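Journal club side-thread
Mid-discussion, someone asked how the predicted structure for our own chain would compare to the paper's figures. Pasting it here so we can look after the session.
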Amino acid sequence: MNFPLYIAKRYLFSKKSHNAINVISAISVCGIALATLALVCTLSVFNGFQDLVATFFTAFDPELKITAVKGKVFNGEDERICALRTLPEVDVFSVSLEDNVLVQYHDRQVMAVLKGVDDEFDSLTPIDSILFGKGDLLLHDEVADYAIPGLQLISVLGTGMRFLDPLEVYAPKRGVKVNIANPSASFVTGQLFSSGLAFAVNQEKYDGAYILTSLGFARRLFRYDKEVSAVNLKLKQGSDIDQVKRHIQTILGDSFRVQDRYEQQEDTFRLMEVEKLISYLFLTFILVIACFNVIGSLSMLILDKKEDVVTLRNLGAGDNQIVRIFFFEGWMISLLGTSVGIVSGLLLCYLQQRYGFISLGSTGSFIIDSYPVSVHVADIILIFVTVLAVGFLSVWYPVRALSKRFLSD
């Protein structure tokens, strides 16, 4: 049996001669537990918001998106691109072409992003889940081309869900300088009619700027033939996205970029990761402050056990063994506080997931009613290691210094 550890356990759970030491020890455990609980809950809430944001993109962004590293467009009939159709993991192969345009409806104008998609687009993503209005998902027929704008864009243009007059779409001619005397001659124009539908991803990036239409209309407007701006893939169920992504990148080479959904929204998720990191560092700083209670508890314990130290020395215990007793005492306080905090935090997260008792507020337009929570095992391990490391470092030097001061001959 480890002699210093055994004595430390007896000191931790036995009644001290001064009741204040018991109180301070309990406060130390509670302080570490509360800081640990805050870490568990805060990181889990950030994970919940990340998972929630990810669900918004699944209805608009493909599982894998292939774009050119240089330039806006590339040849959609390139041999390497066509080879992707035959991959056994690919379920849906779709191409799209998008660029900036000027949209006018009556006396209102707005800059927008026109996204032309092929007929496989409705199979690529669950687009039906974000569509509003009455009508079929129809982007073109033999007579005309149709538009599905974002809800915010409809509000800016004042078209209403089903507009009677067509949208006038303007795109600059490629390689042509603007004629100041006749600016309209430098633009290609087209008309998009109402499909009776609009989409809402609940992200201004899409809802306030994007218009979905047919690939043929986009190619005519932008004066392209076989070019596309992206190849979009949906994989078969059970496919390993990361593995397929690496395989496709090997096939295409360095001239193409292969992105999953998180990489397509890299700026958004990077910002959320930075916020999560800052919260983690801030709460770790609070944890460091809470560990000062452990130092106070140990210093009083050392003073209280000076007579015991004399007895232990008479029994043959060395100074290093005596120092380790108080070192283990401080570490056990940290371990106990960590365990209580993690268990309490997990319990609180479970209750929030199940009952949602902490709401986002009764006012405002929120997509959900309560704070989302998602517990990740990696975060729990990180918290456990962090608290033990902070507890170890906060105890090691003070115990050695206090032992030399109070327990020296």
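Post-session note: The longest strand covers residues 90-105.
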